Amino acid sequence: MNIQQHSGFYVVGVAARTHNAAEKNGKGKIGEIWHTLLRDNLAAKIPNKLGIDLIAVYTDYEAGRDGYYTYLLGLPVSSIHNIPAKFVAKHVPGGRYAVVTSNRGPVTRVVPEIWDRICSMSAGELGGSRSFRADYEVYDQRSTDPEKAQIEVYVGLR
């Protein structure tokens, strides 16, 4: 397992509260967040952005993987000052993260597959126990074609 230690950073974008059961039964909010950000080209309107890779942050967990959490899709930023009202800023805390790379394929298939894989891993396989403070996905140049996407998931560890 690839374990990385890094300092914290901010992500600004569009967010909503959801939970895994709603996402699996088609009543979730993640698809809507993607649609909103991409349809309205909101990423271009985020100030102070650092790069073009989209980041999906899972944070504010209520009860581990089965409770509600905040899902934010946006871009890393150098500052959260002067953020327009339609955006939300979240801090990804520094610490240890297990980096798990998805298979390549349709993004609608590879994202649930990688999370199923992560959730079935023991603490030993993952490199530590999940912290449930923040996890995040990176959508870089390997995911520009949604039919041949590959993402990295950074799983926060204690």
From TrEMBL:
SUPFAM superfamilies cross-referenced by the UniProt entry: Probable bacterial effector-binding domain (SSF55136)
InterPro entries on file: AraC_E-bd (IPR010499), Cass2 (IPR029441), Reg_factor_effector_dom_sf (IPR011256), YobU-like_regulator (IPR053182)
Residues in AraC effector-binding domain copies: 1-158
One Pfam family from the record: Cass2
SMART domains, alphabetized: AraC_E_bind
Coiled-coil regions listed in the entry: none
Xref: PANTHER family: TRANSCRIPTIONAL REGULATOR PROTEIN YOBU-RELATED
Name the record gives this protein: Putative transcriptional regulator YdeE
Organism in which the protein naturally occurs: Tunturiibacter lichenicola
Organism ancestry: Bacteria, Pseudomonadati, Acidobacteriota, Terriglobia, Terriglobales
